[in-house]
Amino acid sequence: MHICIIAPEQFPLPGDGSVEICINAIARVLAERHQVTLISRKAPGLPGAAEEGKLRFVRLAADSPAIYQSSVLNYVQGQSFDLVQVDNRPQLMAAVQARLFSVPVVLFLHSLTFVPPSEATARALARADWIIVNSRSLQHRIARRFPGLGSGKLRVVPLGADLTRFTPADPQEMLRLRSSYRLPGSFTVLFVGRVIPRKGVPLLIRAMQQLNRRLPAHLVVAGRVKPPYLRRLKRLARKQRVSVSFLGSIGHEEIHRLYQAADCFVCPSQRHEAFGLVNVEAMACGLPVIASSNGGIREIISSGHNGYLIEHYREPQPFARRLLALARNPQLAARIGAQGRKDVLEAFDWRHTAAALEAIYNSAVVHVHG
């Protein structure tokens, strides 16, 4: 099968774009069995076309969304694809579907960000042969927001991690990594993600302040952050007397090393998370995970079994209590971390994701061609 995947942004995206991380992983696994063309926006310093085995990268002019859409339509019309997948852009997907009458077109939604409740969005979604979502939580939200869509068009495909790269580190390697990041020897708590208000870093700093009353601990924050917000967070950390390292954006090719340097991972999201890929990556590295009980995170973590879910996640105290329990009981932390790794191995490998997508692609081809 010749599969075309249309990315919404530059590829690879500078920094830590989760959608592009997913596209990259999925495309590379699919290319082991299929011809895959990955279309993205033109990026400075990267060629307009490149090939890695059966994976072809095509970067098109994209000075504006309208120009990118026009570039995509002109390109795909001259190709012979068996299926086209558009990621996270319903309007672009609808335009592609309107241009390619006899080719199945599927939409892979990673969040609600680009599906505002409007008639225009509803019309765009209706054009997809299938709509793929990364969690049951996102499936339910889309179905509620667009009741005329019909749940039969929505298919759930969980995301994954590279389980050969995201692995637990032995004690010596962990110490070496901590030294390389200049981290202290105290209990180390990690946050990875975009550092924006909805991700809950201020609440985590307050939870760390409560933890520090009982034992010394250090917080590591890795992710893109705008300077004004970073200054606010640093002021809060100083006020709360919390030891914290703000590392900025860490490339995804390196991020596994940071997980391997930590004792615990916390995802204190204050709003709906469609999936929560960072939790899977942390669990794959054998870290005990403490996360807000919302969205697709609940489909990854079974509280008390392979991690902990915080129901009252707008308060710092429940996070602090779980952190203290793990810091005081290394055996508990190791058991939870090991179970998390085991469960991820069984359910959240990119190969599982690719296999589920292949089944949907085959159904879409049959649906269109009969």
From TrEMBL:
The keyword Lipid metabolism does not apply. Residues 19-165 form the Glycosyltransferase subfamily 4-like N-terminal domain. Residues 185-342 form the Glycosyl transferase family domain. GO terms for molecular function: glycosyltransferase activity. The keyword Iron-sulfur does not apply. InterPro entries: Glyco_trans_1 (IPR001296), Glyco_trans_4-like_N (IPR028098), Glycosyltransferase_grp1 (IPR050194). Keywords: Capsid protein, Virion. It holds the Pfam family Glycos_transf_1. SUPFAM superfamilies: UDP-Glycosyltransferase/glycogen phosphorylase. This is Spore coat protein.
